[in-house]
Design a protein that fits this description.
The complex is a heterodimer. Chain A is α/β, with parallel strands linked by helices. Chain A has 19 helices and ten strands. Chain A folds into two domains: 49-179 and 344-403, D-Maltodextrin-Binding Protein, domain 2 (3-Layer(aba) Sandwich); 182-342 and 417-460, Periplasmic binding protein-like II (D-Maltodextrin-Binding Protein, domain 2). In chain A, helix 2 runs antiparallel to helix 15. Chain B has helices at residues 5-34, 52-57, 61-95, 109-121, 124-134, 142-149, 164-189, 193-201, 206-233, 237-243, 257-267, 271-295.
């Protein structure tokens, strides 16, 4: 998800200068060389691997952990560090909970001295696909093949999307820890009071919108400043109509993928909501805070988002507000069932290839993926993890309960797509097209043409690594 | 100069020159070097690609769009700020003409000076957030409530591709006028009062005094301001990044060069390409500053 990139220009320049000075290796400023000695000094070598210590972690090797301290905080990581400390009592653990991941870690990557574990997330994250393509990440396949702390191969204890989302060029390089469920969010309390229920078909959805509008509430709001959000609604409707092939073709940058009949139909549907006046007026110019606050105030009934929404809005939501997710409605001829949605894995944990304690980093991830580690995350953040069954028995909030139900009911029919993460230069171009469409300024044909043009440009760009979905 | 004096002077200059070298010259030199590479920004390894980045720039539609928007800002913003600042400074200094009291400013000029200067105290992101709220696109937004009351209907403002750039332009002008007002005000106060009084005795009205006396005497200050404002118009990163949708505005209507640098360098992992844009911006700024200083050169008036 995106949040505004708000730091002052002066700060930005200061940091850019510092970064370039650091990049030049501190002292040798005029040498103009960004390399700062790239030898990996893995201090963990020399300890025998065992069932209890599958990566051969040296007990006294220090561990350097950097966590993105965003919506999930960093208390869960401190708990995981305690668990690590119990196993390796001599290890000195360095913990940093920060938000400006990129500014702080870019110089460390450039000088070949990255931390051992990084939670790369937030608006200031490192470009993951670039790190993956330049071989700077440890292959986590060995981790997923290892025995879990609770028994069984780790890979088999996870929800499959976790492995799929971390795959770059045939290797799993990233552990996406938190499970994110997308959909249209509404207030169950309000809907119960008015006798409304989320609609399953497009016609019913339009009828519901009409009724909601009649009650003086805007049927839908979206975070117009960041068209990523409304993108999700349209893409989900397209996938439900045309099947997963629609997004696998888009992710693989196939020719005419955006001109698929289902994409065009979903674009028409979005235009219909706009033209019938079912969008909150002016929502195209609101950011996520403004639009979600208005939704909390009951000025709009539905808003697109992911399962972090309840936590994000907890300061603003009035008492009794029951944040609940509904899947997007089905258009005529849909091939997937109604109770399915996009489920993705986020909070990208990486172990840099040049980290000093790669084995310790892997062991830390193994601890995170234990039942004990994962259920603590859910307990502290109210967000599910990719570890199957780790949230069982916990008291769930309405949002977490409805999201978990959707993960369950959708099962293998749920999908995910990756073009936003894979092709960062394509992202703003496609977002622009979505923004124009949601504002009703272009037709569905113009949208398909514009998005396809962005995809074709990306496919033709020699600097972009092309990826395909299996 | 006597022997030993050089050592004395050098002793004073070493530190500032070293700092300047490390923090100004060296990053510039490095940016030039990186602009010829495919550096990702997060790796110690990269290749030399010659002028490839610059060649790609000529086909980059977003970059060209950004260049055009910067050109619009460059054409309008400095002129608008200077005219407004001059006008207000003139009023504050010699605008008021009470009966028989000679030349003085309008009543309450101290308060106005403070009020105009206030935006200068706020940091740019704060200004951006304030104005983003004022330009709220919903019908109950601040500006929308006003224009609706006078019967003009509501608008998307920053969400409207036809208006977004002008909204940014307005905020830029609003945020800059205060500083230049104070600058011109100071320059005007250093003009001897008797010149204005002589003009008054010769029967010159306010308009004539302004164009025939004030502007020629302030020319050097105006010229410098123009160059500063031009550089500001080529930047505007913080305002665009915080205020506009995307960021970059609906349909890229507020896309600017500095935003392209940040996006390519940090989000797309293309620090080499971003450096190339930076190099272009460097030369554009240099050329525009040179042209402005040349074109506005006049004979200096001593007083």
């Amino acid at each position: 998800m995106s949040t505004p990139n708000a730091y002052s220009r002066r700060l930005f320049l200061q940091r850019a200068i510092l970064a370039s000075v650091a990049a030049a290796g501190g002292g040798s400023v005029l040498a103009g060389c960004a390399s700062g000695g790239g030898e990996s000094q893995d201090t963990s070598k020399g300890v025998d691997k065992s069932a209890d210590n599958p990566f051969g972690v040296k007990s006294d090797a220090p561990l350097d952990v950097v966590i993105f301290k965003g919506g999930y905080g960093d208390d869960y990581a401190k708990f995981h560090e305690e668990l690590y400390q119990k196993r390796f009592s001599d290890a000195k653990i360095k913990h940093a909970g920060i938000t400006d991941i990129r500014q702080q870690l870019q110089p460390r990557f450039n000088s070949g001295n990255p931390p051992d574990v990084i939670d790369n997330a937030g608006a200031e994250q490192l470009p993951l696909s670039t790190l993956a393509d330049t071989g700077q990440l440890t292959d986590l396949t060995q981790l997923f093949d290892t025995e879990s702390i609770d028994g069984g191969k780790i890979g088999e204890t996870l929800i499959p999307v976790a492995l799929e989302a971390g795959e770059y060029g045939g290797k799993i390089l990233v552990l996406n820890y938190a499970l994110e469920v997308y959909g249209l969010w509404y207030d169950q309390t309000l809907f119960d009071e008015k006798g409304w229920a989320p609609a399953e078909t497009w016609d019913d959805f339009l009828a519901l919108c009409k009724e909601i509008k009649g009650a003086g509430i805007a049927p839908m709001a979206h975070q117009g400043k960041y068209p990523y959000y409304i993108q999700q609604v349209m893409m989900d409707m397209a996938v439900k109509h045309g099947g997963k092939e629609v997004v696998t073709a888009i992710d693989s940058l196939e020719p005419n993928a955006w001109k698929h009949e289902s994409v065009k139909m979903a674009a028409e549907a979005l235009l219909e909501i706009k033209s019938k006046g079912y969008m909150l007026e002016g929502t195209e110019g609101l950011d996520h805070i403004q639009s979600q606050t208005r939704w909390n105030e009951g000025k709009a009934a539905f808003i697109p988002s992911g399962s972090w929404l309840e936590n994000e809005q907890k300061e603003v939501a009035p008492a009794g507000f029951a944040t609940t997710v509904a899947p997007t409605p089905l258009m005529d001829g849909a091939t997937l069932p109604f109770q399915t949605t996009r489920v993705s894995a986020a909070e990208a944990f990486i172990v840099p290839a040049k980290a000093k304690n790669v084995a310790g980093g892997l062991e830390f991830l193994r601890i995170m993926l234990s039942k004990e580690g994962a259920s603590k995350f859910t307990e502290l953040t109210a967000a599910p993890t990719v570890v199957q069954g780790a949230g069982d028995g916990l008291d769930l909030t309405p949002a977490a309960a409805s999201a978990s139900a959707l993960v369950e009911s959708g099962g293998d029919d749920n999908w995910n797509y990756y073009y936003f993460n894979w092709y960062s230069p394509m992202k703003p171009k496609v977002e622009t097209a979505f923004g124009e469409l949601a504002a009703g300024r272009i037709t569905s044909d113009e949208f398909c043409t514009a998005a396809q043009k962005a995809a074709d440009e990306t496919a033709a760009d020699p600097q972009t690594k092309k990826r395909t979905r299996s | 100069m006597r022997h030993g004096q050089y050592r004395f002077i050098v002793g004073f200059l070493v530190m500032p020159l070293a700092l300047y070298g490390v923090f100004v010259v060296s990053p510039f030199v490095q940016a030039f070097y990186y602009s010829l590479t495919n550096w990702t920004g997060v790796s110690p390894e990269f290749d030399f690609v010659g002028l490839q980045n610059f060649e790609n720039l000529t086909n980059d539609s977003l970059f060209l769009r950004a260049l055009r928007n910067n050109a619009v800002l460059l054409a309008v913003m400095p002129l608008a700020v200077i005219l407004l600042a001059l006008f207000f400074a003139f009023l504050l200094n010699v605008g008021g003409r009470g009966a028989g009291s000679g030349v003085r400013g309008v009543r309450g000029s101290g308060f106005y000076k403070l009020a105009f200067f206030l935006p200068q105290v706020l940091s740019v992101p704060v200004i951006a957030v304030i104005w983003a709220v004022i330009f709220d696109p919903t019908p109950t937004g601040l500006v929308n409530s006003v224009v609706r009351r006078i019967g003009l209907g509501s608008s998307g403002w920053l969400a409207d591709p036809d208006l977004a750039l002008y909204c940014v332009l307005w905020v830029l002008v609003w945020g800059s006028v205060g500083f230049y007002l104070v600058l011109f005000n100071a320059a005007m106060s250093s003009i001897p009062r008797d010149i204005f009084e002589a003009a008054l005795l010769d029967g010159a009205g306010r308009v004539t005094t302004f164009f025939r006396v004030t502007i020629p005497l302030l020319w050097d200050t105006i010229q410098t301001s123009w160059v500063y404002l031009a550089i500001l118009a080529l930047d505007v990163y913080a305002l665009i990044a915080v205020m506009t949708a995307g960021p970059g505005g609906p349909n890229n209507s507020t896309q600017v060069i500095s935003l392209q640098i940040a996006q390519n360098g940090f989000q797309f992992g293309r620090a080499g390409y971003a450096s190339a844009i930076g190099v272009v911006l460097f030369f554009v700024t240099l050329i525009i500053a040179a042209i402005m200083l040349r074109a506005t050169r006049r004979e200096r008036i001593e007083y």
